């Protein structure tokens, strides 16, 4: 029977390849491009509005921002969609960007190694200039120190790199016109800003002196970069380069430019002239504590925060001390009612500057925005204020704002506020109306899980039914009988038209369908994802809509602040448990005072409600402080009846959650059979150590794990990752070969794959092991090259199949540099028909290490960033390998390609019977197997697969920067009628036959009659 | 000694690092940067790379001498892979075509010009066409054709029979009777008689060997007879 099934499946696998039809694109899958959460608090990287004038004279604005995912992006302010995005490499962090007319310049890499110039409307890369080698970059803290960009009025870019080198780059050709490097590079003199004016280019920096910094200015000729003057300005600046500001005013002839800094709570400034002869002046009278850059330095505007917290707008002035306070924001002083104000600057269509101030009022529970238009009211300045209903319970705190203003008539200013929140949301508010929200924290998903939905019946009837009286039952059935006509009509209609549920149709709910329920085939599930920004989302896997979201509460750390990093997610209750599905998220809370705690969050996967019942839906989700300290490891332990989370703290004490009498009884029963391998030791020299729990409780009332074995790896070898097998059913225990012998799969449940690196060894290498975690025996080991001094091995492990991917630049015999995949299959015993029942065998049995390893290497067409295998409900369907390629594709490759038993000659009949094809080193790269088709799924970090109700189908969710979800059928949809099935043909044939019978029947009858008469 | 040479070599390498330049030429498969999207050119596994700019040019900075595989990472387009040898002397790098999966040493002697010129080989098509309902295609199906032919024969047979020569008709009838007798005997397991009937098939003037077939002759045969009789009457 098994053999037949296997043969039948093999025949299925040989059917034409799975591929996407153009009509299914966007129906069975969805894709959400993201940019990552916008960087806040850095005027060179944070969101900013930019308006360009098109050829026809119309203006078009974009929101430009750099993000923590290392993306530079342009967003459409009208609807929040992505106009373009430019992805930087991981080793090439974007440090600053500057916009000018239709160009954006961005500098990235250590010390500002690379300058790129992009088109601001399309995001196309126009020029890329490498300024210095990444190794030559100076590491300064923070990393954007000593890096600056500036455009002059003729679209030339000045790029300051490494704190001492400046280059003038023609933005239209990308040519470096001249470069200048400080003669004394080793000195403590670091330039931090560049300010081009028509007469001179000023480099502004700090020289370290005792206890404070001294201002240092160099003036260069814009024409050829020759030094016009260089001067130390007598000053004593206590804070670093962040307290140094350069203002310029292009409106005035020849330009007025000043450098500002805070010295002893006084604003000091010096006028910049090519000769550098001016003396510093002081704004007298008021004490200030901080200067705030508005992004309006080329309009000569800045905000200075007074000692009491109120904000003064400071403007360049040609008279007197050169600076003038033109406005004081009312009620901006520190108070218990309002949070500290955020200041920002923006421009209108005509290029007039506006200063915005946004704060949160604890009293009104609303956010307020005040926009100052300094040029209005005959130059006296006009402030427009309004409040907007920002939802702090959903989106956290506003971390950064950018404004854009319009002045349609005199004394009327309309403002658009772009708010970036601490949860990673980007929101655009036009006056008090929310225009759009982008949930960018989804670009930083740490853990994700598919959760099954309940059936519609259950949803409608209520889940905890079961006890009803006869009268109730009759009433219910009468009320249900009302639906009978509808049902009958529906049935007839379905019978006639044949419109059944199709596997290639969307399972997204229609608008009138509000109840969250499973579809016919179980394609619709809930994705519970927890992000690094302290928020958990429930996403409809049918269309990617966010169904609910909750903020993680900080607990006691709310007073000092902190962040929550999700580590693991477990489904503790499923639909099968006759309750609403629930998930437990294991997180680590890092408070700002340095304390680390392990906190659990227990939520209802359908609604996001707190399953502990402690909080209302609108509040923050309260955490359950489980361990006062970091987490070592967490597992989900399954029993027949219960599921619970087992956590280990630093002292290897076991904590369980939920800690009920039922779970603790089950835990105590399971203790003798629990064995696990922990990564112990320090970062950089991790060891793998096997542990088991002591049978007695310690005096602390907890069980403690004791080491039982340690992997005997070389000292230099570090554990990089432990790859465990997914919890899934195995349909067949063996593989029937063409000659009717059987290879039995090695299915020891205690086996893990371990990826190691030994980069400090004399010859750096990487390794992969398959180990038994009960006794620490190594079942398989392979040494891989460490290319470029790093180990980048991706591995997937399922049933008895381990597959890993690496780059081999071996200059060995065949000198074939390429990406490789190695497919390893583990079988029992030493050959065919040898059986040790590894799935049931005790790990302590001698024969448990009796493994037959069959492996084969293939050349893979590209680098991958994540890989996994499909999972199906019963494990009968053959498995596909799903890989995320470096070029932004998600591809499904059948396991048949990777079969390590592919013969290296023409297959014999027996081998053909097994559907083995001749070995070909190169894995075919078929675009038809690309699941993500036209979508550019960038920087995938992980791929999650989950079974659907249909055995043939597996759900796939890939996340990284973007989100992508689809479903795959590795053996085609063998359990439903094929989409290619021609129902029309069947109907026509049958009706044709019926017609033929109808016509011929009277003819035959007549003939018979005649026969009787004339015979 | 060896180590010092290595050290010296590495010094030379860093001194001689080379900026590899090239250009992607737009063609009918890839018309420009807008169609190509963000794409990059990488050496080996991507440790050294350069972005493709709007005019198709790219620069990979500071490449130390060595043998590299140059490939283009683009989402929608396929480019040839090239083998690039950056030499330790001052001469320009050598560029050769490269077939993935083959040893580096076996690449051909064909030399490509430097700066590197490359263009898209083809644009990927990710979709397959679904087979729609096609009436002509449906009737091209052999089963369908057989059915149609059979159906046509049902109607055409009487007319064909009518127009046949009576003698030919009789031989045909006879043969049919024989065949049906063989069939029936095989059906009833009487192999011997079946074989003997088969033997007699060869003889031209053979009459039915056994009495059985006569009585069990097919109704179709009798109907034909009947019909021919009717014809005579008219």
From TrEMBL, chain A:
InterPro entries named among the record's database cross-references: Beta-prop_EMC1_1st (IPR058545), EMC1 (IPR026895), EMC1_C (IPR011678), PQQ_b-propeller_rpt (IPR018391), Quinoprotein_ADH-like_sf (IPR011047), WD40/YVTN_repeat-like_dom_sf (IPR015943)
Family that this chain belongs to: Belongs to the EMC1 family.
Protein name: ER membrane protein complex subunit 1
Bilayer topology term: Single-pass type I membrane protein
Gene source species: Phanerochaete sordida
Domain ER membrane protein complex subunit 1 C-terminal: 798-1013
Keywords of this entry: Endoplasmic reticulum, Glycoprotein, Membrane, Signal, Transmembrane, Transmembrane helix
GO BP, sorted A to Z: protein folding in endoplasmic reticulum
Subunit structure: Component of the ER membrane protein complex (EMC).
Locations listed in the record: Endoplasmic reticulum membrane
UniProtKB/TrEMBL annotation, chain B:
A single Gene Ontology CC term: EMC complex
Membrane-topology annotation of the record: Single-pass membrane protein
Molecular function GO terms recorded: carbohydrate binding
GO BP terms: polysaccharide catabolic process
Name assigned to this protein: ER membrane protein complex subunit 7 beta-sandwich domain-containing protein
Segments forming domain ER membrane protein complex subunit 7 beta-sandwich: 37-146
Skewed-composition ranges (Polar residues): 212-226
Biological source species: Phanerochaete sordida
Similarity comment: Belongs to the EMC7 family.
Keywords: Carbohydrate metabolism, Membrane, Polysaccharide degradation, Signal, Transmembrane, Transmembrane helix
Chain intervals for the UniProt region annotation (Disordered): 202-234
């Amino acid at each position: 029977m098994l053999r037949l099934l296997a043969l039948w499946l093999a025949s299925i696998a040989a059917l034409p390849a799975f591929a996407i039809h153009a009509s299914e694109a966007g129906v069975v899958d969805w894709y959400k491009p993201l940019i990552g959460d916008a960087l806040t608090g850095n005027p060179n990287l944070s969101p900013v509005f930019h308006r360009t004038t098109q050829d026809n004279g119309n203006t078009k604005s974009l929101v430009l921002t750099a993000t923590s995912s290392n993306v530079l992006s342009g967003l459409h302010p009208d609807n929040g969609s992505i106009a373009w995005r430019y992805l930087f490499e991981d080793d090439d962090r974007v440090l600053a960007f500057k916009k000018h007319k239709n160009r954006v310049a961005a500098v990235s890499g250590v010390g500002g190694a690379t300058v790129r110039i992009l088109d601001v409307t399309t995001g196309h890369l126009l020029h890329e200039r490498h300024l210095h080698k990444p190794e030559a970059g100076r590491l300064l803290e923070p990393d954007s120190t000593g890096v600056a960009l500036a455009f002059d009025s003729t679209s030339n870019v000045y790029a300051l790199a490494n704190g001492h080198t400046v280059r003038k780059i023609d933005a239209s050709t990308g040519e470096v016109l001249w470069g200048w490097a400080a003669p004394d590079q080793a000195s403590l003199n670091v330039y931090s800003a560049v300010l081009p004016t028509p007469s001179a280019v000023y480099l502004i920096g700090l020289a370290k002196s005792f206890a404070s910094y001294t201002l240092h200015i160099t003036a260069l000729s814009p024409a050829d970069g020759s030094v016009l003057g260089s001067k130390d300005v007598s000053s004593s600046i206590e804070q670093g380069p962040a307290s140094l500001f350069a203002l310029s005013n292009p409106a005035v002839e020849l330009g007025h430019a000043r450098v500002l800094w805070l010295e002893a709570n006084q604003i000091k400034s010096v006028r910049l002239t090519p000769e550098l002869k001016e003396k510093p002046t002081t704004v007298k009278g008021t004490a200030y504590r901080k200067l705030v850059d508005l992004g309006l330095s080329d309009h000569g505007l800045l905000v200075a925060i007074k000692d009491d917290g109120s904000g003064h707008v400071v403007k360049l002035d040609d008279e007197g001390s050169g600076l003038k306070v033109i406005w004081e924001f009312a009620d901006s002083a520190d108070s218990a009612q309002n949070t500290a104000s955020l200041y920002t600057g923006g421009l209108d269509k005509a290029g007039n500057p506006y200063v915005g101030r946004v704060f949160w009022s604890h009293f009104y529970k609303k956010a307020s925005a005040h926009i100052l238009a300094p040029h209005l009211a005959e130059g006296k300045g006009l402030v427009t204020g309004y409040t907007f209903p920002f939802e702090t319970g959903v989106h956290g705190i506003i971390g950064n704002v950018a404004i854009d203003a319009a002045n349609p008539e005199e004394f009327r200013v309309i403002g658009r506020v772009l708010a970036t929140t601490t949860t990673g949301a980007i929101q655009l508010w036009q006056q008090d109306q929310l225009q759009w929200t982008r949930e960018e924290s989804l670009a930083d998903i740490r853990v994700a899980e598919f959760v099954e939905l309940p059936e519609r019946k259950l949803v409608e009837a209520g889940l905890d039914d079961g006890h009803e009286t006869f009268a109730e039952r009759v009433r219910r059935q009468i009320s249900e009988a009302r639906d009978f006509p509808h049902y009958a009509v529906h049935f007839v209609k379905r019978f006639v038209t044949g419109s059944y549920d199709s596997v290639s149709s969307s399972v997204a709910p229609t608008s009138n369908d509000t109840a969250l329920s499973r579809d016919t085939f179980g394609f619709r599930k809930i994705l519970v994802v927890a992000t690094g920004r302290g928020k958990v989302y429930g996403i409809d896997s049918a269309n990617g809509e966010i169904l609910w979201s909750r903020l993680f509460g900080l607990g006691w750390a709310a007073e000092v602040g902190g962040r929550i990093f999700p580590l693991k997610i477990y489904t503790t209750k499923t639909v099968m448990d006759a309750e609403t599905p629930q998930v437990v998220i294991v997180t680590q809370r890092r408070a700002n005072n340095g304390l680390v705690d392990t906190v659990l969050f227990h939520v209802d996967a359908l609604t996001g409600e707190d399953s502990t019942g402690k909080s209302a839906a609108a509040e923050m989700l309260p955490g359950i402080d489980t361990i006062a300290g970091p987490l070592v490891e967490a597992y989900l332990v399954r029993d027949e009846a219960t599921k619970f989370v087992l956590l280990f703290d630093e002292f290897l004490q076991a904590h369980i959650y939920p800690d009920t009498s039922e779970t603790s009884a089950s835990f105590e029963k399971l203790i003798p059979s629990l064995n696990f391998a922990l990564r112990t030791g320090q970062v950089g020299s991790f060891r793998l150590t096997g542990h088991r729990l002591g049978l007695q409780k310690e005096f602390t009332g907890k069980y403690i794990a004791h080491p039982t074995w340690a992997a005997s790896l070389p000292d230099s070898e570090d554990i990089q990752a432990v790859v465990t097998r997914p919890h899934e059913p195995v349909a067949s225990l063996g593989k029937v070969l063409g000659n009717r012998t059987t290879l039995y799969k090695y299915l020891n449940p205690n086996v893990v794959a371990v990826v190691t690196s030994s980069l400090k060894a004399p010859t750096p290498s990487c390794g992969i092991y398959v180990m038994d975690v009960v006794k620490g025996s190594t079942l398989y080991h392979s040494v891989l090259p460490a290319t470029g001094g790093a180990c980048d091995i991706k591995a997937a492990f399922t049933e008895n199949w381990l597959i890993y991917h690496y780059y081999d630049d071996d200059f060995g015999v065949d000198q074939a540099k390429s990406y490789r995949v190695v497919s390893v299959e583990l079988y029992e015993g030493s050959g065919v028909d040898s059986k040790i029942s590894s799935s049931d065998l005790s790990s302590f049995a001698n024969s448990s290490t009796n493994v037959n390893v069959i492996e084969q290497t293939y050349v893979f067409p590209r680098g991958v960033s994540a890989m996994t295998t499909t999972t199906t409900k019963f494990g009968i369907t053959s498995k596909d390998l799903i890989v995320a390629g470096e070029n932004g594709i998600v591809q499904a490759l059948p396991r048949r390609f990777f079969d390590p038993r592919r013969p290296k000659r023409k297959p014999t009949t027996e081998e053909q019977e097994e559907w083995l094809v001749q070995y070909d080193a190169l894995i075919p790269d078929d675009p038809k197997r690309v699941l993500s088709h036209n979508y550019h799924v960038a920087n995938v970090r992980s791929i999650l697969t989950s079974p659907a109700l249909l055995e043939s189908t597996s759900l796939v969710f890939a996340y990284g920067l973007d989100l992508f979800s689809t479903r795959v059928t590795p053996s085609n949809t063998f359990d439903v009628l094929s989409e290619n099935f021609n129902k029309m043909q069947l109907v026509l044939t049958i009706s044709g036959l019926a017609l033929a019978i109808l016509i011929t029947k009277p003819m035959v009858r007549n003939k018979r009659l005649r026969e009787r008469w004339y015979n | 000694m060896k180590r010092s040479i290595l050290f010296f070599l590495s010094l030379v390498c860093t001194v001689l690092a080379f900026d590899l330049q090239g250009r992607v030429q737009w063609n009918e498969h890839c018309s420009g940067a807008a169609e190509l999207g963000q794409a990059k050119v990488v050496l080996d596994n991507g440790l050294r790379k350069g972005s493709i700019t709007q005019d198709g040019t790219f620069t990979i900075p500071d490449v130390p001498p060595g043998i590299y595989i140059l490939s283009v990472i683009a989402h929608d387009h396929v480019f040839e892979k090239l083998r690039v040898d950056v030499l330790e002397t001052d001469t320009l790098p050598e560029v050769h075509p490269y077939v993935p999966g083959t040893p580096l040493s076996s690449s051909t002697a064909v030399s490509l010009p430097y700066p590197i010129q490359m263009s898209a080989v083809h644009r990927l098509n990710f979709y397959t066409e679904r087979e729609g309902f096609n009436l002509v295609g449906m009737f091209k199906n052999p089963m369908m054709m057989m059915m149609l032919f059979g159906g046509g024969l049902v109607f055409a047979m009487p007319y064909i029979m009518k127009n046949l020569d009576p003698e030919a008709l009789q031989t045909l009838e006879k043969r049919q009777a024989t065949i049906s007798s063989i069939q029936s005997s095989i059906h009833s397991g009487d192999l011997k008689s079946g074989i003997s009937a088969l033997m007699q098939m060869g003889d031209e003037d053979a009459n039915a060997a056994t009495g059985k077939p006569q009585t069990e002759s097919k109704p179709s045969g009798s109907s034909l007879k009947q019909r021919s009789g009717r014809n005579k009457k008219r």
